[in-house]
Prior knowledge:
The complex is a heterodimer of chains A (309) and B (446). With 309 residues, chain A is mainly alpha-helical.
Amino acid sequence: MVDAATGAAGISVGARRPSLHKLFQRKSTIAFLMALPLILLISLLVVYPAFYSLHLATLNKSMERFVGLGNFEFLFKRQTFWMVVEQSVLFAVTAVVFKALIGFFVAHFVHAIPSKGQRKWRGMLLVPWVIPPAMSTLAWFWLFDPSYSAFNWIFTKVGLGTIPFLGDAYWARFSVILVNVWFGAPFFMIMYLAALKSVPEQLYEAAAIDGASWWQRLWYVTLPMMRNIISITVLFSLIVTFANFDIVRVLTAGGPIDQTHVFATWAFKLGIESGDIPLGACVSLFMLPILGLSAVFILRDINKRGNEA
Amino acid sequence: MAKSHVSRRGVLKGAAAVSAVGLAAPFVRGAHAAGKLAVGFWDHWVPNANNGLTKLCNEWAAKEKVEITIDYITSQGNKNLLTIAAESQARSGHDLLAFPTWQPADQARHLEPVDDIMTELIKQNGKVNATVEYLGRSSGKWIAVPATPGSQIKGPCTRIDLLKQHAGIDIQAMYPAGAAPKADGWNMETFLMAAEKCHKAGVPFGIGLGQTSDSVDTAGAIFNSFGAALVDGKGNVVVKSDPVRQALDYYKKLIQYLPADVAAWDDASNNKWLVSGKGALIMNPPSAWAVAKRDAPQIAEQLWTHGMPAGPKGRYAPFLPYFWGIWNFSKNKPAAKSLLVHLSRKESAEALVAASGGYDLPSFANFTTFKTWAEESPPKGTLYHYPNPHDHQILSVTASQAPPKIAAQIYTQAIPTKMAVRHAQGEPMEKTLDWAAAECEGFSRT
């Protein structure tokens, strides 16, 4: 009886060893182990703060009492909050649409350049995207400066009136969107250029034989082939633009009279400058469902097309 | 394998030997016998002003045998506010920190009471004004000590020549160097008239209406001079009052004589306005004058820092004190208090004022007549009236009628300037008041 039991245990230990060995030989295990430092780093720097901000959002102003969803209830009654929601949507959607359009057309122009001279154009067009935005926005601030705008100096020289780029709400909104488009369009351009290069030339040849016009080739060949990359790029840019902080902070700091605030700058204003960290956390968390929903819809669409293919 | 045996007798013998050596050794007072102290001061924007503070700290550290570590934390990008928030959350960091105006009230429950040293300092250096008490005390206790570095009055800094030429006002005669002001006629109406004339002459007053502190401080002083409060001491919203309406009407008249884009101004805009020679007056501590002295000496020669115009309810000047506070989780509170006493002595305050070229302002009544302010030039005496030596104006901070935690939000959200801009841009008075009332109601959230 005793022998039999020992024997069974011996067999099970012997059987486990090769399986553990096999486990460590699997590509997926090796990949997981190699990614583990990054997973830990992301957990530490992203997951922990995310959950901590969820916790903060449920506390009262002095962070001594649990108030559940009380902060959100309070926010939803604020006129300024809804103005910030409206402005964030306007800012992100307008900027992403323009970035996508400009990126798309510029990618086509660059694609049409003979490959010999294309590299320098690609390099030059990427410059706005590789400069840290806080720095380039500072240069834009000087161009728009309330008293010393370089643009206004030129306008005055040619006999035109000056424009209050940052002093008037509409011009200020235009300015922050313009800088965001200037900064982000090269990213779209490079992604679309890569997509364009991967469209098989035979498809265009076949379309040409069928007598397709330029517009028909674009509509029936290029766009369907680029749909996935367009979706991914738009999603990625939408997330980044919604969460934008530096451009608005440097250029207008949310002014004049709060009319350029977006979620991140408003959250900073409430949380850090006004000392209401829970309310600031609530404002920043408000982005989460909007971006989450966008991601679900866009990724589901991509998945569907992938399955159809 | 050899085994070592530790016997009871052996341990006792060893312990006895160690104790004997310890007791027999002479007491040696080490270089840092009084422990360590980590302090975080505000990183001054006047070049070399930090050196004056470092020197004072090192003198104290050498005398008290404390190992001191000093960090200068910039207010650029609100890094000081982020540091305060992080240390308060972590309950760890520096022992002593520099706290901007509203922060002591905000962090009151994490700050060590300093009644013991403040009582002595007031006895020694004279009393502090009501604004310092309002900001530095909580629940009847002093929670911070007013700091000299960073504290400032943001009164008018005027172009002597332009104001005389275009508005017929001799500001030096009104505020003579070395003598009491003769400024009875310097009131809100005279100010408005001068603003109009300078605007017509193409050198408008540069008064910001943005969301940063220079703009809000000016608006606060103007509101105070009309007796306009947004929230009262009990936390009741009192926006819809006649004084508030009068202040907004005054601002509406004033804004038409200011540069078109003042709603977008930040704290650098007014300095640039004055130094470039474009304007006749700004509201600022003498930093604009100091920059002009370096970059545009011909303009600096024409600048005069002086008092605010009086309103129907008095002459209020925008005052923004800085504080030094000790965290209640500090590991060396006695050393921190000792350092604060050292830095608040008359000699230290005078040295700090000199190191900042007259920019810094001690909050104690006996410290308003240092020779730096009397002698700085050009022109000689330009800073004489900066520290309010004749106590002819009330040093105030925006929204100080409200409890500090509500006032801090009115201030940081720039409610007075936003009200002024909204109304000046054509929004009906009652709509502006409704908006402000709704905002203020939200600030009373606990």
